[in-house]
Design brief:
The chain has 55 residues and is α+β, with helices and mostly antiparallel strands. The protein contains 2 helices and 2 strands.
Length: 55
């Protein structure tokens, strides 16, 4: 398991490992992207709505 890339954005650090993607099928990639959206979208939408309310 090797670290391919490390990205820092604010207080968040994204660490990418090659063991996840080296044998991943296109279907698995699509499922992962869908799941990420299911997790991230509600939080991003809530943040946007809070900013609209206060802004």
């Amino acid at each position: 398991m090797g670290v391919v890339k490390e990205v820092k954005r604010g207080e968040t650090t994204f660490i990418f490992h090659d063991d996840f993607c080296k044998d991943t099928t296109p279907e698995e990639v699509q499922a992962s992207k869908k799941r990420l959206g299911e997790i991230a979208y509600p939080a991003l939408r809530a943040k946007y709505l809070r900013e609209e309310k206060t802004g």
